Amino acid sequence: MNEKLSWKNYLFVASMLFGMFFGAGNIIFPVHLGQAAGSNVWPAIAGFILTGVGIPILAVAAIGMSGGNGLQDLASRVNKKYAMFFTCMLYLTIGPCFAIPRCATVPFSMGIAPMITGVSPEMALFGFSLVFFAIVMFFSLRPSGIVTWVGKILTPIFLVFLGSLLLVAFANPMVNSIANIAPSADYESGAFAKGILEGYNTMDAMAGLAFGIIVVNSMKNLGLRTNEAIASSTIKAGVLSGIIMSVIYLMIILMGTMSMGVFPMAENGGVALSDISGFYFGAAGVFVLAGIATFACLKTAIGLVTSCSETFCEMFPGGPGYRTWACIFGAVSLLISNVGLTAIIVYAIPVLMFLYPLTITLTLLGLVGGHFNHSKWVYGMVTFFTLIAAVFDLMNALPKELAGSAFVSSMVGFATEYLPFFAQGFGWLVPAMVGFAIGLVMYKVKGECSNHKVAVG
C-alpha cells in the first residue's frame, strides 16, 4: 500500500511543528543576537540556525526514524536507567520547570506589564498567568485536535502579528547598510560559535526530541500506518517547518541589526522588540508586541503540556492518566511562572548547558545508528564521555552565588586547562568523539568475537 500525505496535510503538520517550536523566546534571543552581532551578523546567523533549526529538525527526524514511541525508546539504546533519567530531565526542563513557565512570563513582561497601572506587578503577573494557563489547559485537554488548534488557528494569528512588524521593518529599514554597525565585544571574533550557543537558549533541540512523538502521532491520525511512511513524512514535514523557521529567524535577526541604526544596544531582546515596535507603530506598538508574544507562547505552551503529558503516561503506565498529568504540569507551571522571568532564565542556563550536549549526541546517534546496528557500545560510550564533560559545562554556567565555591572553581579551572574548546562552551565535543571511537572499536571487537564463536560452533 502506497501511503502518502497530500501537500496540504504536510503544510498543516509543518505549521503545527513550527507553531510548537516558535515561542516568544525564539523572537527575543535572535533579535538581541542581531543587535549584538552588528556587521558580523552573517556567521552569527549561520551558527544560530544550526542549533536553533538544524538540530531541532534532526531531532524530530530521529524520533520519526526510530520506529519507537518517542524519546524514551531512543534513549533506551544507551540503557533503560539512563533513558528514564534523561527523559525525565528533558521533559521537566522544557516542561513545567522552565520552558512552560517562561511561556507565561515572557508575554507578560513584553506586552502586558507596560499597559498595566495601579496594580502590583506580582498580582498582575498572577492574574495574567492564571488566564494564560486556563486557555492552555482548554486546548491541551483535547490533544487530538492539536493540529487544528496550533497549526490552523493559533500559528496563523501569530504570523499575522509578527508579519506586520517584519513587513513594516523591511519596507522602512532603520539603516541602509549594516556593514558599518560595530559588533559588540562578544561578536568581534567567533561570531559563528557565539551564534551556536545562542541557539541553545531556544531549547528547541530538546523540544525536537519531545515534539517528535506528537508529529508521529499526527501522521498516524492522518492515516499513515507503516514505520517507513511515518518516518519519511515526518522528515518532509520537518524540513518544510525548518525552512519556514530559517526564513523568519533571518528576518528577525536582521531587523535587530538594523535597529542599531536608531537605538543603542538593548538590555535584552524584549526591550529591543519594544523599541522597534514603538518606532514603527507608536502607541499601538505595545498591542502589536502583546499579540506577537502572547500567541507565540500560547501555542508553544500547548505543545509542551501535550507532549509532556503523553510521555509521562507512557513512562508510568500504572500512574495518572493523560488529563491528570496535564493538570499537574499546568498547575506547577502556573506556580513557577510567578517566580519571575529573570529567575527562570538564570537557573535554566546551567541545566541547558548540561542537557544540550546529551541531546545533540543522542540525536546524531539516532540518525546514523543504522551503520553500527544501533550498538549499545557506541551509544553507551558516547553518552558516558559526553555526560562527564557536560557536568563541567553545568558548573561553568552556575549562577554567581553557586559558582563561587572552592570545589566548583577548581573543577572549572581543571576543565579550562584540559578540555579543548571548553572556554567556548564546547568542552563536550572531543570527549564525545573519543567515546564514539571507543564505542566503534568495542562494537567491532564484540561483533568479530560473536562471528568467531558462530564459525567455531
Automatic annotation (TrEMBL):
Broad class of the protein's primary localization: membrane
Subcellular location field: Cell membrane
Keywords: Amino-acid transport, Cell membrane, Membrane, Transmembrane, Transmembrane helix, Transport
Cellular component GO terms, alphabetical: plasma membrane
Molecular function terms, GO-annotated: L-isoleucine transmembrane transporter activity; L-leucine transmembrane transporter activity; L-valine transmembrane transporter activity
Name by which UniProt lists this protein: Branched-chain amino acid transport system carrier protein
UniProt topology in membrane: Multi-pass membrane protein
TM region positions: 9-29, 41-61, 82-101, 123-141, 153-175, 195-216, 237-258, 278-305, 325-347, 353-370, 377-398, 418-443
Family, per entry: Belongs to the branched chain amino acid transporter family.
Top-level taxon of origin: Bacteria
GO aspect biological process, one term: L-leucine transport
Keyword Transport tagged: yes
Organism this protein belongs to: Anaerovibrio lipolyticus
The keyword DNA damage is assigned to this record: no
Described function: Component of the transport system for branched-chain amino acids.
InterPro entries assigned to the protein according to its UniProt record, in alphabetical order: Brnchd-chn_aa_trnsp_Livcs
